[in-house]
Amino acid sequence: MLQQYEEEKTPLLQIRGLQKHFPIRNPIGKTTGYVKAVNDVSFDLYEKETLGIVGESGCGKSTTGRTILRLTEPTAGEAIFQGENIFDLKEKQFLNVRKELQMVFQDPHSSLNPKKRVGYSIEEPMRIQKIGTKSERMEKAMDLLNKVGLREDQYYRYPHEFSGGQRQRIGLARAMAVNPKMIICDEPVSALDVSIQSQVINLLQELQEEFKQSYLFIAHDLSVVRHIADRIGVMYLGNIVELTSTEELFKNPLHPYTKALLSAVPVPNPTVKKERIIIKGDVPSPANLPSGCVFHTRCPYVMDKCKTEVPTLRAVEPGHEVACHLYH
What we know:
Blueprint: H1 2-7, E1 13-25, E2 31-45, E3 50-54, H2 61-68, E4 76-81, E5 84-85, H3 91-98, E6 101-104, H4 118-128, H5 134-147, H6 164-176, E7 182-186, H7 194-211, E8 214-218, H8 222-228, E9 231-236, E10 239-245, H9 246-251, H10 256-263, E11 314-317, E12 320-322
Parallel strand pairs: 3-8, 3-9, 6-7, 7-8
Antiparallel strand pairs: 1-2, 1-4, 4-5, 9-10, 10-12, 11-12
Helix pairs in contact: 4-5, 4-6, 5-6, 6-7
């Protein structure tokens, strides 16, 4: 499958040098520094592909997704969608592109308006994009409810009348209302029970097969990402440190941080012995990043050049990129 992506002429989405820095202000409002939530992120997303972004809490995964959609404006970088840098577009121009880019948020409760019926929420993207008549929008909303496993009569209910898994299905129906080419899924199952997680993941795969969409799937649960993603990018402190196919990542992880992450994944077999790699030290503050490689303060293989030179994300094998001086 990886070869198929490499043979594609143009990716659906190209992210280059994405940065998002949040200012730190003192009590009188003066900027004293910046939290570098996303420091330097680059990747490609192809049509009908699911790209997983994984990493521990605070590494910048969700900020990356929100910045791509300009829910927070980027500090630097480019987002080339179908040949056009969407970061350069004015608000009215970006509204046309927004139709093709939708998002499923992490918290299924707070992402829905508690004062509006769920049917209203599903129809809202169509109203903003001026798609169809009132009756046509209502008909499509009910059809989407059916597709995500809910009933048409639930169109008239309010968010508090649904379970967490049902609310996440409603959020997915809303994201699909305008037939987007790409959906950013920001930890869509992290707040759900394990049994409900599997239902939502299977639903995502079924809908992707039917509507030929691309997913940027953000999560911290490696077992979930392994099940749904075609390729995986591993993030640490606002940087992607490794990017390759899902099969290759689990079979042959290269970056020391990736190896430590995978060693923490439990194996459901008591007879299998697995070496647990413990990363020493604490995660540095994104407001005061280490010089050189951001992982060098915790890396067991640190070299002198790691402390001064920033490693770039480069291919060490076909389709396998890693940002580490051990391989360059």
